[in-house]
């Protein structure tokens, strides 16, 4: 498991929805929202 998977798992464990997006070739990314409803994007290059 890489750091991005660990972050997504931690967010989900605290009740935050995580939406994975495979539309950026060469990268892994997901979206979530903060407590004010702002969309946050997290990404990392694919191994």
TrEMBL record:
Signal peptide: none
PROSITE patterns referenced in this protein's UniProt entry, alphabetically: VOC
Segments passing through the bilayer: none
Domain VOC: 1-45
Protein name listed in UniProt: VOC domain-containing protein
The organism's taxonomic lineage, starting at the top: Bacteria, Bacillati, Actinomycetota, Actinomycetes, Pseudonocardiales
């Amino acid at each position: 498991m890489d750091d991005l998977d660990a972050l997504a798992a931690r967010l989900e464990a605290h009740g935050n929805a995580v939406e994975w997006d495979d539309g950026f070739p060469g990268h892994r990314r997901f979206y979530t929202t903060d407590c004010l409803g702002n969309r946050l994007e997290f990404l990392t290059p694919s191994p």
